[in-house]
Amino acid sequence: MTIHVTECLLRMYDQHHELEDYQSGVPRWCTGCGDNAILAAVQRLCRDEDLRPEKTVFVSGIGCSSRFPHYMKTYGFHGIHGRALPVAEGIKMARPDLNVFVNTGDGDCCSIGAAHWIHAIRYNMNMTVMLHDNQIYGLTKMQASPTSPRGLKSNTTPRGSYLEGLQPLTVTLGVQNVSFVAQAVDWIPEALYDILLAAYRHKGLSFVRILQRCPEWLPKMLDPWVHDPLKTMLLTHENGLTISPNLSKVYKTQERHDPSNLNRAREIASIADPIPVGILYRNPDVPCYEELRDAGQQRSARYIKTGFEAELDKFTVWPQGVDAKVQQNA
Ligand SMILES: Cc1ncc(C[n+]2csc(CCOP(=O)(O)OP(=O)(O)O)c2C)c(N)n1
Ligand code: SF4
Ligand SMILES: [Mg+2]
Predict the structure, then answer these.
(1) Which residues sit with Cβ closer than 5 angstroms to ligand 3, an ion?
(2) Is the bond leading into 287 cis (omega within 30 degrees of zero)?
(3) Of residues 328 and 312, more confidently modeled
(4) Could you give the CA distance from residue 270 to residue 165 in angstroms, rounded to a whole number?
(5) Which residue in 97, 112, 180, 317 has a CA-CA distance of 20 to 30 Å to 200?
(6) For residues 208 and 281, is the Cβ–Cβ distance under 8 A?
(7) Whose CA is nearest to atom 22 of ligand 1?
(8) pTM of the full structure
(9) Which ligand is nearest to the CA of 103?
């Protein structure tokens, strides 16, 4: 097949995307909200990986962070509180060819959506899940979330929360079929970008917990870590995150961690101080549910209609005598 030069140029033009091709609207998040940094990293990733906007979908639940799809010029589904993951799985099942991203808050994922979270890890469908963990319910104005630290005073815990915060990484790493787990922080954009890129490129469900600042309700909570680079532990490895000399100069607390080591990943996951940043676990060999099920096979409208009608017919109350006639003709 010969392709004309103009057609070739047109195709190249069509396939190349700039940042603006992914930007939509003006984010309504508060100034200094960590969600802004996550959005910037994701838009850069889409541009650099040249993701086709019409082949890309962002799914969210409800919360400040769940406004994410509105700011991406791609397909999006701003869903129901806690239900981002099953919606994303449905999309992936019907259209495995799409790039599926999920943006979920700590309330959305770890509280009301906790059951879906566990099963989504087990199903291991190929998608990138970002947990925007600000350790509070932001949108509904400051209720404690499962990841809130012990002692946090909030509208639902006026005397301080009684329980230690749930650690999303240890939970995820404990689920059967887990295939990719990483941690990032919104205030180190270079590492955030590299981790999201590795997550996107992983085949399977990649779960990235991002510690995200909420200056509106918890203005100083993460300050000790933001202002003291020694309180961040970069996880480096040739099969994980390789960091630039500049970043290495600033963040001197480092551990060489091989992401294939699940036991060490589980130990690292429970470290709260210093905050581990990097890829904790990666296993590219875990099968994806959509492949096990041969998802996305094109079925004709007629095939679907016939199957649907057959299902409904099971519950039909036929007038007397008709039943036998139907059976004769069946
Ligand atoms: C079924 C249901 N229950 C409760 C709510 C109220 N609600 C909306 S957002 C939210 C919490 C959001 O917190 P989080 O997921 O951490 O997101 P953030 O706003 O912090 O980004 C709650 C409880 C709702 N919208 N729907
Ligand atoms: S309330 Fe918190 S999480 Fe919500 S937009 Fe403002 S800073 Fe961000
Ligand atoms: Mg939250």
Answers:
(1) 105-106, 134, 138
(2) no
(3) 312
(4) 11
(5) 112
(6) no
(7) 140
(8) 0.90
(9) 1
Does ligand 1 have an atom closer than 6 angstroms to the CB of 68? no
Pairing of strands 56-60, 75-78: parallel
Residue 206 scores a pLDDT above 70: yes
CB contact at 8 A, 104 and 58: no
* Residue burial 53-84, b: 16+ Cβ < 10 Å; e: rest: beebbbbbbbbbbbbbbebbbbbbbbbbbbbb
Amino acid at 120: A
Q: Which of 28, 62, 133, 142 maximizes ligand 1 atoms within 8 Å of its Cβ, making it the mutation to test the pocket?
A: 62
Q: Please state, as a whole number, how many other Cβ atoms lie within 10 Å of the Cβ of residue 3.
A: 8
Two structure tokens written together for 157:
């815990």
Q: Which H or E run contains 57? A: strand 56-60
Per-residue pLDDT tens over the stretch 51-102: 999 999 999 999 999 999 999 999 999 999 999 999 999 999 999 999 999 9
Alpha helix locations (H) across 124-241? 168-173, 189-201, 223-227
Close Cβ partners of 81 (under 8 Å, ≥ 6 residues apart)? 61, 62, 63, 107, 108, 112, 113
DSSP for residue 230: G
